[in-house]
């Protein structure tokens, strides 16, 4: 019952950390405890055998998967890259609106050319944006290598980004660079990958997300992100560690000197280690896992200022034939129903009137971008699967199981389906199965605050992200998207950084 490290939760951060920790320190053993029946956090799947389909719980496109991409390099270092069947594609996404559809290639030069062809009057702004991605996004992308002394950045650009760009939102800078409302929506669209709205998300952080996708390439894992999580579990067990599922942790144990000694599960079992990693929302951990320890009051105060990212409302569809035959030819599409300026205005109105349910639904379901993934195109064996995502807020969702909740789910499904059919009408009459997950669903299965699957929002003020610095209980570490930043690649990169700097 004694281990070198115990991880509470099996998100990609702790799975990656445990794998690398055991590889870096032979003989050391990690124990991972998970409340769910499957490992991986958001990198998981669920099956619907009657439809012969499998559904990914979140967008599982991996960035940084070509060239010097961090994700590809780390997967290779862990020895699992060759175990994964990866599917690459040519487009970042297809931008769909009533003005027409634009396929946007994955390479930066081709991406820029496609946009300039569609918006020739905006070529100066497009070039400025891509130049920012190449310079400031590159520096931010290699942040962990910079900290480790493995990458030499442009220091002048790094200082400028920290002083100036960090204070600006995506919406502010994009609106300064271009004026066409449709182009603004396209340039801001990748914000959905990290659960942020352009008027909330910090521009400097956003640039590294775009750099990761355009300059470092993307890929999907055949077998879904669950295949990635399961492969990491296999590596942990092969190295002498263990992953125990269906075992919620009730509290973290510490002695009178505020030194960690292990954890206790809800079943009353105790596991011991002097190093405990929390791979869970800090709001949940501090309120539930530490028995009201007064020494943590200053940390709780800092966490109250840590703003969650948005959640998602997700619709899962199965069609009776390949989606590509019905007009959904690209792996990914973004559907835009309103102009950028109108979307931002509606969301600001919704923020000022949180009790107005109709306004909330209009702002998030009807108006904001909707991301569509044709999973059949990357993994045909899992069925004719299409998944729709919109960013959403949990605040206007009733409690699960209530009549109001069920009625709201039905409304959301109708809205999202009709938005899809307005742009891809041939899909009509070919949908044979559909279901929906809401922010309440994600909150239930992950304990993430407000159902925020992307962790903390990276806005223009990052001070709250330092909540875990000088933590009062020795041996407690926080590793998740709440500390690393949103996205699979950020989680894996942060885990590698911590494993490399771990002191025994």
What order do the helices and strands come in, and which of them pair?
Elements (H helix, E strand, L loop, with lengths): L4 E4 L3 H13 L5 E4 L11 E4 L4 E4 L5 E2 L6 H8 L8 E2 L3 E7 L2 E6 L2 H11 L4 H19 L1 H5 L7 H9 L6 H8 L3 H8 L14 H12 L3 E4 L2 H15 L3 E3 L4 E6 L5 E6 L4 E3 L3 E3 L3 H7 L8 H7 L7 E9 L12 E4 L4 H13 L4 H11 L2 E5 L10 E8 L10 H21 L7 E7 L1 H8 L29 E3 L2 H4 L3 H13 L4
Parallel strand pairs: 1-2, 1-14, 2-10, 7-16, 14-20
Antiparallel strand pairs: 3-4, 5-9, 6-9, 7-8, 11-12, 12-13, 15-18, 15-19, 16-17, 17-18
Helix pairs in contact: 1-10, 1-18, 3-4, 4-9, 13-14
What does the model show?
With 504 residues, the chain is of the alpha/beta class. The protein has two domains: 5-41 and 68-83 and 223-306 and 467-500, FAD/NAD(P)-binding domain (3-Layer(bba) Sandwich), CATH 3.50.50.60; 89-216 and 307-446, Polyamine Oxidase, Chain A, domain 2 (Alpha-Beta Complex). It is 38% helix and 19% strand. The chain is built from 18 helices and 20 strands. The protein has helices at 12-24, 70-77, 108-118, 123-141, 143-147, 155-163, 170-177, 181-188, 203-214, 224-238, 282-288, 297-303, 340-352, 357-367, 403-423, 439-446, 481-484, 488-500, and strands at residues 5-8, 30-33, 45-48, 53-56, 62-63, 86-87, 91-97, 100-105, 218-221, 242-244, 249-254, 260-265, 270-272, 276-278, 311-319, 332-335, 370-374, 385-392, 431-437, 476-478. Strands 8-7-16-17-18-15-19 form a seven-stranded mixed beta sheet. α4 (123-141) packs across α9 (203-214) and α13 packs antiparallel against α14 (357-367). 54% of the residues are buried.
